[in-house]
Amino acid sequence: MTTQQQPMPAAAGPTQAAGGMTPDPRGDGTVITGRSPARMAWRRIRRDKVTMAAFVITVLFILIALLAPVLTAITGWGPITPDGRAIDPDTGNFPRGALGGISLAHLLGVEPGTGYDLFARIVYGLRTSLVVGFASAVLSTVVGVVAGLAAGYSGGWVDSVLSRIMDVMLAFPQLLFIIALTPVIQNAMQTNSHGGTDENLRLLVLVLNIAGFAWAYTARLVRGQVLSLREREFVDAARIMSAGRWHILFRQLLPNLWAPVLISFALAVPQNITTEAALSYLGVGVIPPNPDWGALLSDASQYFLQDPMYLFVPGVLLLVLVLGLNLLGDGVRDALDPRAARG
Fold it and tell me: How far apart are CA 48 and CA 50, in angstroms?
């Protein structure tokens, strides 16, 4: 009686199908792992030296803003603590010493006339700029995504009404209308015991005004993406399975929009920071003596010939911050959409 030998199973190689790894198709021991779109985007960002430099600059500025109380405690001067000894009355209330009064006591000098420490006012002004920039970008992104989803998916009269509203908002000269609306809203606010407007409410007005005009850009972008995605097979499959409107909007369409929405948000932050600085420069932003970069530039322009460092320091820092955020936004865009990479 003969015994039929069964074929021996192939020995398991070093790679297995579990844990996100696929068997080695070439037989040379190479492990092939799957990568998510977010992981591939982060890999592209890490390989881009310009984007990584912009990322480091952005994180550094954020840390400085968060640690503003600690940094000013180390230097010993607050943003509205005057140092009369640093002002030379014989020269017309300009700082003592060269370069705007830069010394160990005042790392970036002092303000002419007031004697406020410029380093303290810059780090606290940075907090104002970042809060307004990021808060208005978050608010405009949320409103824009909701409006774009509703317009693109619903169609019909809903799309027509929302699209016309977007057109009107995009046609407005944003800066001029914010300048006109901000004092009107602020004058209607309840004033505090000192007769001035509460600073938190003033910042809230700035955020609402900037976001109130910026949401239309995101809405227009999202609407265009939704018009394309709503005809895709996975949306038809969800409808066949009796999925509700909210499920299709937030579980099927929204996850496929995160890349353009993230790009729009990343590019909106530096634009909003610039807008806030321009408003403060024109006198409709943060109320002095509260620190703000736009207000610093406005005051410094009056003393440029006598004290150029007063204008140079906040101007260069604002340039570096906005440039870093813009380069970071461009890098995120290129990482999420390699076809749009820089030439």
Answer: 6
Contacts of residue 44, defined as CB under 8 A and 6 or more positions apart, other chains included, come to 334, 335, 338
Question: DSSP letters along 232-271, please?
Answer: SHHHHHHHHTT--HHHIIIIIIGGGGHHHHHHHHHHHHHH
Place of tokens 């509205």: 80
Q: How confident is the model at residue 242 (pLDDT cuts 50, 70, 90)?
A: confident
Strands 21-22 and 32-33: antiparallel
The owner of tokens 């792992």 is 33
Cβ pair 328, 164 in contact under 8 A: no
pTM of the model: 0.78
pLDDT in tens, 85-118: 767 776 667 777 677 667 777 778 788 877 788 8
Beta-bridge mates of residue 32: 22
First to last CA, the chain: 75
Reference 339, options 44, 65, 14; nearest CA is: 44
> DSSP string spanning 115-126?
-BBHHHHHHHHH
Mutual angle of helices 258-281 and 118-154, in 10-degree steps:
140
Residue 88 dihedral angles phi and psi, to the nearest 5° = -100, 105
Residue 31 carries which side chain, given as an amino acid letter?
V
pLDDT tens readout for residues 263-320: 889 888 888 888 888 888 887 777 777 788 888 888 888 877 777 888 888 889 989 9
What's the CA gap between 47 and 50, in Å, rounded? 9
Token pair listed for 239: 């409808």
H and E: helices and strands count for the chain: 12, 4
Distance in angstroms (rounded) separating the CA atoms of residues 223 and 216: 10
Eight-class DSSP state of 116: B
d(CA 183, CA 82): 29
